[in-house]
Write a structure and sequence with these properties.
The complex is a heterodimer of chains A (about 350) and B (about 260). Chain A is mainly alpha-helical and about 350 residues long. Helix content of chain A is about 70%, strand content about 5%. Chain A has one domain. Chain A has 14 helices and 4 strands. Chain B contains 10 helices and 10 strands. The chains are: A mainly alpha (about 350), B alpha/beta (about 260). Chains A and B meet through α7, α8, α9 and α10 of A and α2, α3, α4 and α5 of B.
Chain lengths: ~350, ~260
């Protein structure tokens, strides 16, 4: 099909263009927030297909992001050195799955290999998504929203109340993650450009997978579930299995984003697991037009960047709340829908009359 | 005589105090057109939902192609070769006509979620096959011109045709049609009769619920009559027309 990947190429060109623009204007410090924006965008790419395409809302995706981030942070900072004699730690050391270094004060530090920690983070998020998804995805609409909201609350309280996870302070001193030879996911000015491209490269890869999925047999099955679940079942679609697989996929994307952002910023705190974060992801998908992948990526890039640069000030969360209210009132189908403008006009006219 | 394609045995379903389907038994022979008729509230649609797995039965058995499919979930029943349409047409409004019919090809294809994400080579061939097959079915139903139209924008009669095409995409052995003539005008109903015969000629057995008596009497090999959840008669159209109990429930006691 000609033009199938055109939006993806445009997105790639924009990513390159933005980097060149910051280089030309001497504003490459923007790349830090743009890189963080990319990781948050990865979350909404997964949420976009779950919500917009398959029609399953999740108000708990910050929970999966936090599971990814906290698992990574915990496993890559937990010192195995005092436990080196124990069989598991000894095995990890012997197989090279644990790495030794010295901490700031010169003490011996032995931690799990970041690659293994990353896989553990994804596996844990996937496992939790299965356990939560099986009972919860039977619900529809408001009920599913409430149940996933509950899940998000649980994760938030767990990370906030667990001393091993740093409680209110979170975890810090997370080491770099070597994504590819020469590409270290970590903060600092030196790797800024490489990190920017790595992060947006992952968004483009995620978008490519989602785009392919939408135009496949499984994608049609998901759209059928959204369209009419009982008809989908009558056509032989195992709706529970498809919903669960998609839920797990979107949870893995969120966890990967959480894990990598944690490496990038060197730590994670409980606010990443907060309900406001989950609401923010949903608001972005709504602004982007629900099933509109490109709209969602655009909305995420703009809103997250402005938020991270602090343009919204103390109204940061309020902006996202306002977006949700506005979208639900005037454009439940997303900003691009032509109906939006008709509705706005009708609303204005209605006001004038009263 | 060969074994019937579908055997319904003592099927029961209650909704609270209402015994909607009561000890229903009947067979559907291969390549027959069999109709289920009865006054409103007789339990016809409930019976369909029980057979298709959309509702669990309280008791009894459904045997399809020699296998018990009692209480199988709907998607498994569909996969076994039993397709259905709905009384109030359930198309996917978020897709165009061709895509709707392509969803019907789900059980005749295999590509999973990962294969779709990575566009594995075999999935492209499979996609092409599903698409071609959907196109053929649109031709069969004389609606090829609607392929790109959004399903929600069609006239009701066209929607019914799309739904039948979608069900045929399952390549079913048995097709359940729930009131296929409802909302159609006389001309459209006549064409529906021809279509149902055409489908039977494809080696597909048909079980339909229908209120339009001229259509039922015209196309059916056999008819089952339900009243208040019970089977009150079964036989060939000519027998049913003369059956005193059937005349009583349709016309009242004075005529029996």
């Amino acid at each position: 099909m000609p033009g199938r990947y055109t939006p993806l190429l445009i997105l790639s060109a924009l990513v390159v263009g933005l980097q060149l623009a910051t280089a030309a204007t001497g504003t490459s410090y923007y790349l830090t927030q743009l890189t963080m924006t990319a990781y948050y965008t990865l979350v909404v790419v997964g949420l976009c297909i779950l919500m917009g395409y398959a029609g399953q809302i999740s108000l708990g995706h910050a929970g999966f992001f936090a599971i990814g981030g906290y698992t990574t942070a915990f496993l890559t900072t937990f010192n195995l050195a005092p436990h080196a004699q124990q069989p598991v730690a000894a095995l990890l050391l012997r197989t090279g799955l644990a790495v030794s270094s010295r901490d700031l004060y010169g003490a011996a530090l032995t931690t799990l290999h970041p690659g293994l920690a990353f896989l553990c983070a994804l596996a844990l998020a996937a496992g939790v998504a299965v356990l939560i998804g099986i009972p919860v995805l039977r619900l529809k609409g408001h009920y599913l929203a409430m149940a996933t909201l509950g899940f998000g609350l649980i994760v938030y309280r767990v990370v906030l109340g667990t001393p091993a996870l740093g409680a209110a302070d979170g975890l810090s001193d997370v080491p770099a993650f070597v994504l590819a030879p020469g590409v270290k996911i970590t903060g600092g000015a030196a790797g800024r450009i490489a990190n920017y491209y790595a992060a947006w490269g992952l968004v483009i890869l995620g978008a490519l997978l989602v785009l392919n999925l939408m135009q496949s047999r499984a994608g049609r099955a998901l759209a059928a579930i959204h369209g009419n679940e009982s008809a989908a079942q009558a056509l032989g679609i195992n709706t529970a299995a498809f919903k669960l697989r998609l839920f797990v996929f979107s949870a893995i994307l969120a966890a990967a984003a959480g894990a990598l952002l944690t490496h990038y910023t060197g730590g994670i705190g409980p606010s990443e697991a907060g309900i406001m974060k989950s609401v923010r992801y949903v608001a972005i998908v709504a602004v982007g037009g629900m099933a509109n992948l490109w709209g969602t990526i655009g909305a995420s890039a703009l809103l997250n960047f402005l938020s991270l640069r602090g343009y919204f000030g103390i109204y940061d969360d309020a902006v996202f709340g306002g977006c949700l209210v506005g979208m639900m009132l005037f454009a439940p189908q997303g900003l691009r829908a032509r109906a939006t403008f008709d509705r706005l006009r009708a609303w204005v006219r209605g006001r004038r009359r009263t | 005589m060969t074994t019937p394609l579908l055997q319904v045995r003592q099927l029961n379903r209650r909704f609270g105090g209402l015994h909607a389907v009561k000890d229903i038994c009947f067979d559907v022979q291969r390549q027959h057109i069999k109709a289920v008729i009865g006054p409103n509230g007789a339990g016809k649609t409930t019976l369909f939902n029980l057979i298709a797995g959309a509702l669990p039965a309280d008791g009894g058995e459904v045997i399809f192609g020699g296998r018990s499919i009692s209480n199988w979930p709907a998607h498994r029943v569909a996969g076994a070769g039993l397709a259905r349409t709905f009384q109030n047409v359930k198309l996917f409004g978020n897709m165009n006509v061709l895509e709707n019919v392509m969803v019907g090809g789900h059980v005749r294809s295999h590509a999973g979620m990962l294969a779709g994400m990575f566009r594995a080579p075999h999935t492209r061939r499979e996609e092409a096959r599903i698409r071609d097959r959907a196109g053929e079915l649109l031709d069969l139903l004389d609606i090829a011109g609607l392929a790109d139209r959004p399903a929600g924008a069609l006239a009701f009669g066209q929607q019914r045709a799309v739904e039948i095409a979608r069900a045929l995409a399952l390549e079913p052995q048995l097709l359940l049609l729930d009131e296929p003539a409802a909302g159609l005008n006389r001309h459209e109903t006549g064409r529906l009769g021809d279509l149902i015969r055409k489908i039977r000629a494809l080696n597909i057995t048909i079980l339909l619920v229908e209120h339009d008596m001229s259509l039922v009497m015209d196309i059916s090999d056999e008819i089952v009559v339900l009243s208040f959840g019970e089977k009150i008669a079964e036989g060939r159209p000519a027998e049913i027309q003369r059956h005193p109990e059937v005349i009583r429930v349709y016309l009242g006691d004075d005529h029996a």
